[in-house]
Amino acid sequence: MRLRQPVALMMVGMVALLAMVSCSAHKPRQVAGGQPLTEPEKEVLHEAEQMLTRSCMKDHGFEMWAVPRQPLPEDRDFPYVIDDVEWASRHGYGSDIDAERSRLRAADPNRRYFENLPSAEQARALEALNGRQSAARLEVRTPDGVTMGRIADGCTSQAQQEIYGDLASWFRVTSVTDSLTALWRADVTADDRFESAVRRWSSCMKARGFDYLTPLKAREAFLRSPQSADRPQEIRTAVAEAECAHSTGMSTDLQRMEEQYRIQRTRQHQTDVDTRARLEHEALPRARAALADIGRSGEG
Questions:
Q1: Where do the domains of the chain lie?
Q2: pTM for the model
Q3: Ordered DSSP codes for the chain
């Protein structure tokens, strides 16, 4: 059994390192049953957790700066194939977004602040943020067979407890539902229809002068090799990928398959899915009240 620590337990919580994800990286879609949260509602929950954590850290004698929920709004998730021609014509395979992410990380005030703390203060800051090692722990086994754990203490946990009302339940349902996306995507790529779609796409690309067996191979050629410096070629290849995804029917087929498997995986864990939706909606009034209180106290 593998143990995987969630982001909230990592130093990244204090340093506010922006995750190094490419256009293929996982960004969980809304899987909760009932009415999904709107983008503004998601922002409210995020901002409240950030501000409550910041206030708690200040009580412990440490500075902390809020991290945007979407620091790079142009970042997109293409788990199988790039199928947005306009996006590809601007970003290619996302090497420009990767460069901007690196720039933001280097300029991050939380990172610089943490790295400038004496080692003893760094340890104290991490304990304040993530909790004492001697404190109670929460663990949950996710549908992909991974056991996730966290300390039920510290400013991160305190903020989530205040917003969601039940830290243990919140940790359980987010751990479970966040793992579902990887499962249904694995279902898609294991489907014979996926292999057929990839073969059609590869033939289309070859006819255009791009000899790649899979979209992943094309992506890797520009994001993981010296060829990545050839920005015009990156864009031409990504645009061809997106056009072939549409002309061969690959994009449509993958959307149908993903919806099929998404529904199946969601139904298997409907209780956790619905509980997450309920906790999120119930959290909104508390989050708004917390933001109002913090605003009145001058924290924001």
A1: 3-297
A2: 0.83
A3: --EE--GGGSTHHHHTPPP---TTS--PPP--SSSPPPHHHHHHHHHHHHHHHHHHHHHTT-------S-S-TT----SS----HHHHHHHTTTHHHHHHHHHHHHH-HHHHHHHTS-HHHHHHHHHHHH--TTS-EEEEE-TTSPEEEEES-HHHHHHHHHHHS-HHHHHHHHHHHHHHHHHHHHHHHHSHHHHHHHHHHHHHHHHTT---SSHHHHHHHHHSSGGGG-HHHHHHHHHHHHHHHHHTSHHHHHHHHHHHHHHHHHHHTHHHHHHHHHHHHHHHHHHHHHHHHHHHHT--
Residue 39 corresponds to which tokens in the numbers above? 């983008």
Q: Which two tokens stand for residue 156?
A: 């991160």
pLDDT digits (tens, 9 = 90+) for 214-262: 999 999 989 876 455 689 999 999 999 999 999 999 999 999 999 999 9
Per-residue b or e along 205-244, where b marks 16 or more CB atoms closer than 10 Å to that residue's CB: beeeebebebbeebbbbbbeeeebebeeebbbbbbbbbbb
Find the helix packing angle between 167-190 and 192-207, rounded to 10°: 60
